[in-house]
Specification:
By secondary structure, this protein is mainly α. The chain is 82% helix and 0% strand. The protein has one domain. The chain is globular and about 35 Å long.
Length: 106
C-alpha cells in the first residue's frame, strides 16, 4: 500500500495547489516528485489500478505546475531510463494534460 498511498499524497498536494488550498509548493519539489513518479512508471506500465493512479498523479502535478522545464526534465529522465514504455507513459500523460488545459482556456 506504500506506493498507492504515496501517489494519493502527491495528487492531493497538486490538487491543493490548483485550488489554492495549500501554500505554494516550490517548483524544485514538484520536479523531484515528478521524477519519482516517472521512475515508478517503469514498474506500473503493465496496466491496472497502479498504472491509472500513476498517470493521474503525474497529470495532477503537470496541471498544478504548468512548466515547460518540468516536461523537458521528465522527457530527459525517460530517455535516461531507456524504456519505451516509460516514454509512452509520458507522452500519454502529456497529451491528456494538454486536453484538460485546452478545456480550461475555452
Amino acid at each position: 500500500m506504500f506506493w498507492y498511498d504515496l501517489l494519493l499524497l502527491i495528487s492531493a498536494a497538486a490538487r491543493g495547489v490548483l485550488t489554492k488550498a495549500f501554500e505554494r509548493i516550490p517548483l524544485i519539489l514538484a520536479k523531484r516528485l515528478a521524477v519519482i513518479v516517472t521512475d515508478l512508471s517503469e514498474y506500473t506500465v503493465l496496466g491496472g489500478d497502479m498504472t491509472l493512479r500513476n498517470r493521474e498523479t503525474l497529470a495532477n502535478l503537470l496541471l498544478a505546475f504548468p512548466s515547460d522545464s518540468l516536461r523537458v526534465l521528465l522527457l530527459g529522465r525517460g530517455k535516461q531510463l531507456d524504456n519505451q514504455a516509460v516514454m509512452q507513459f509520458l507522452q500519454h500523460v502529456f497529451a491528456e494534460v494538454q486536453k484538460v488545459q485546452s478545456f480550461k482556456e475555452e
